[in-house]
Design brief:
The protein is built from six helices and ten strands, in the order E-E-E-H-H-E-H-E-E-H-E-E-E-E-H-H. It has two domains: about 90 residues, Ubiquitin Conjugating Enzyme; about 130 residues, Alpha-Beta Plaits (2-Layer Sandwich). About 35% of the residues lie in helices and about 30% in strands. The strands form three sheets. It has a five-stranded mixed sheet, with helices on one face. A three-stranded antiparallel sheet has the order 1-2-3, sandwiched between helices. Its main location: cytoplasm.
Length: about 240
Amino acid sequence: SETHGITFRIQITAKELLDTDVLLKLLFHLPVNYPSILPDISVNSDQLTRAQCMDLKDKLLEEAKKHLSEPMVHELILWVQQHLKYIIRQSTAVCSEKTTLSRGASTEDGIWMLFLHLDHMRAKAKYVKTVEKWALDLRLTGRLMFMGKIILIILQGDRSNIKEYLILQKTSKVDVDSSRKKCKEKMISVLCETKIQPQHARFQTFEVKDYSTMDELQKEFEAVGLVTLFSEFVPPLLK
């Protein structure tokens, strides 16, 4: 649209290390003032690991900076097809190197984001208070969002604190079952866990918010540059 730009998907094949065809699903969001501003890019492939997809996304954004102020999507697609095998080789080497580092030595992770989907909350008031306390204790910002039956959580902060939150979410008795007995969260989906990109804004606080329409919910994502995240994960939850 005139205010939100456009979003589109492209499926391409490229060669990986063993010269096997890899199907890549690329999602581009072009803001209104593209190409003066970089597009938001999402990369998915059933044949690559999440880490490899994220590394490929980072490399695509680096390449996009070289084409700033000129149409670039076609160039980026050609670049991926030509360089995928080298990116995978480099990503594998970096991943291997990182496994030799202790968790405490990882001081340059930057700010990360966690995107969760909850199936339901039976003890909503208690559950919400618990999530708010965890976010405060771990110095995480973001949103706990309700839209109809959809329950979403976006968190931003240090990666170690993001990991700690996820452990609490999965191991603590935060809800009640159908018999009103305390129970752990078993119906949670991690939709996305990624390092925040330069084009993404930061939530300054953690807030609990209700939305009456999908358009209202989408605007919350747009306000912090997360249109691609919304387009990729939220509409399928309505099906």
